[in-house]
Amino acid sequence: MCAAAVLLAGCSMPTPYVPPRENPQGGRTFYLSPGGDDSDDGRTPQTAWRTLRRADTVRFEPGDRLRLKGGARFPGTLSIGQGDAGSARKPVVVESYGTGRGVITARGTRGIEVHNTSGVVIRDLVVAGDPAAYRSHEGIAFTSDLPGSRKLPYVRVSGVEVRGFRNGIRLHGGADASGFRDVVIRDCALHGNQDAGLVADGPAFDSAAPAWAHERVTVSRVTAYKNVGDPRASRRNTGSGIVLGSVRQGLVEQSVAHDNGRLSSPDAAEGPEGIWTYDSTRMTFQRNVAYANHTGSEVDGGGFGLDNNVSHSVMQYNLSYGNDGAGYLIYSAVPNRAHTDNTVRYNISHDDSRKLQDYGGIVAFGSRVTDLDIYQNTVLTRANGPVRPPALRLLSSLGAVTVRNNVFVTDGPPLVVSQNAFASSDVLLQGNDYHSPRGWNLQWGELSYTGLDAWRQATGQETLGPRPLGTDRDPCLAPVPLSTAGPNLNGTGPTRGALAAQCTPVLTGAAVDLRVLGVDPGPVDYFGTPLSGSPGVGAVQFGPTA
């Protein structure tokens, strides 16, 4: 009777209630939309919540998802704390839905904070700060202050843009080296921040009992640019692109750092770099580009760096150009033996040290830098007005350093500057090409040499037993044809701005066979050409040694 009455009246029955299904991970899904209502259940796009404040009241369980409407703006902060998430197999996911990316606009706070938990995925969002956030807060912060050295597993950040904060993304470890493990940050744009685009840090390093807050950190296809620094911060470095500190086993690849550090303090004792690491071990920087990075002071401002307390690490297949400071800086300011067993190979530097001639294309100096291998690199430095940096600079306390099979070219003196007249047991140069079209000059301690033969005979450098090594012939460096699409990071080495030798026959026989010396030359050269034997000089292979 009721059904007949309803039909006669032209009405419809109310839709039966269907409980929201679990998502594919077995968790709940919540939605945010500017048109939503915080009094709804938030479980569907039609019953979405309106504010981050409402979402912040939820205890996120493993497998849960929070989805922000694409293209919409959401003021406030999202916090995921201890007791939330926690599962690597069923992570909590924060992402956008619909068209475009949702935008979190932080007002004097962090944008997203993950504290003492992990098993979290943050993807396809924009996080933007205001002036107060720029001075004091992180855009996305992963923080552990747990007691002990526990590593919280599984962190993923991808497809995000972070701008307008003190640091774009930060991994922060605890006083006892608690931190995060299995971290992947990929396909992100980090720009317009103050101190750095991306930073990882932990407790002060103790060489007697080394401990690292974070393990297995991967940074891939990240662009960090116009993170300009703080002109008031004279007691810390600011204005870097990517900085990884307190990391055990890290990888930065296919990433770009440019135009950072422009406003860093003119009085700072430490300056910014494009991509660098400190207090870390087993780090690899490969297939990255760093260009047009700056410093406000008279220190740093370079492309890449292995700084204090870095060990068992490699910089390879990278491109550096047009930076204020060194292309590749290997440096230690602490008198311990923690800076050891590092390799710089198959990199290209050109027109670096544009502001600071006390650096150079490749620079190694500091307290007790030991067991450093520098080989198969190509370096071109040219004067910038009165600034005349060398291609290679060596300073202070170096031990067991080898420099082999590199191409060093300048447009005038000096080619190489060594503060000390190092014994070959401390610093050994073999199989390098040293070329300058005007005024060949090499400074070795207090003496200056105007010819390769004279320097070789006086010092024993560039020899292997009775055999003379090295050359001063012109490699005819020429730029690789450029793509208009910017640096190509999909191959082994970026092509845009790279240099290759054109006069290869005259360099044949100049290099030393690395395999004979017990050095693994690697599988490929800068451009991914397979190596059938020990290569000739420089980052780009032109043929085997004689």
TrEMBL record:
Please list where the region (Disordered) is annotated.
18-45
Start and end of every Right handed beta helix domain? 217-380
Short name of one Pfam family: Beta_helix
InterPro entries attached to this UniProt entry: Beta_helix (IPR039448), PbH1 (IPR006626), Pectin_lyas_fold (IPR012334), Pectin_lyase_fold/virulence (IPR011050)
This chain's protein is named Right handed beta helix domain-containing protein
Its source organism is Streptomyces resistomycificus
